Amino acid sequence: MNRLFILVLVVSLSSCQKNDKKEAKTEVEACATDSTKGKKFEMYEMSEMAALMEQMYVDNQRLKERIKNGDTIGKFPNHFLKIHKAVMTDESDNDAFFKEQAAKFIKAQELIYEDPKNAKEHFNNGIDACIACHKQKCGGPIPKIKKLYIK
C-alpha cells in the first residue's frame, strides 16, 4: 500500500513539474515576444576595464584564501597592469583620480608579493583603493568588493 502511494505521488509530482516547465516556457516566450516587438535584441558586452576588474576580483578571491591559509603567495599577476590602459565603458572616467587610485591599487598588490609577511595589510590597502575609486566612479560593486577584505 505504501509503495503504491509513493509511486502515485512521484508520478503526480513529475507530471506537474513537466507542465510547470511548459507553462513557464510559454510565459517567457510570450513575454519576450511582447517586449521585443520592433526591437533588436542586443547582448551587453563588457568593456575591457569591466572584464579586467572581474578577473582581478576572482584573482583576489584566490589570493585572499592563500593569505588566510598561510599558503605560498606566488607571483604578481602582470595582467593587473592593464588597468592603466584598458578601455573603459565611459572614457571620461579615466581621469587623474582614477589613475591615482589605480596606481595605489597596483602598488599595494605588488607589495603583497614583495613583502609577504605583511600581505594581509597590503591586500586590504589594495581593497581600500578599489573602494575609494568606486565611491567616486561606480558604486554598484562596492558591497561585493568589501567581501574581499581579510579580517
Any key phrases for this structure?
mainly alpha
Helices, by number, come to 5
Rg measurement, Å? 24 Å
Total number of beta strands: 0
Which parts are unreliable, with pLDDT below 50 for 5 consecutive residues or more? Answer: 4-36
Q: How would a textbook summarize the main sheet?
A: none
Beta-strand percent range: under 5%
Report the oligomer. Answer: single chain
* SSE sequence, one letter per element: HHHHH
Helix content: 55-70%
Mean pLDDT: 81
- Note the overall shape: globular
N/C terminus separation: 57 Å
Outline the structure in words.
- The longest helix has 34 residues, at 2-35.
- It contains 5 helices and no strands.
- It has helices at 2-35, 48-69, 96-114, 119-136, 142-146.
- Helices cover 65% and strands 0% of the residues.
- It is globular, with a radius of gyration of 24 Å.
- Helix 3 (96-114) runs antiparallel to helix 4 (119-136).
- It is mainly α.
Any chance you could write out the topology, listing elements then pairs?
Elements (H helix, E strand, L loop, with lengths): L1 H34 L12 H22 L26 H19 L4 H18 L5 H5 L5
Helix pairs in contact: 3-4
In short:
The protein is an all-alpha fold and 151 residues long. The protein has five helices and no strands. Helix 3 (96-114) packs antiparallel against helix 4 (119-136).
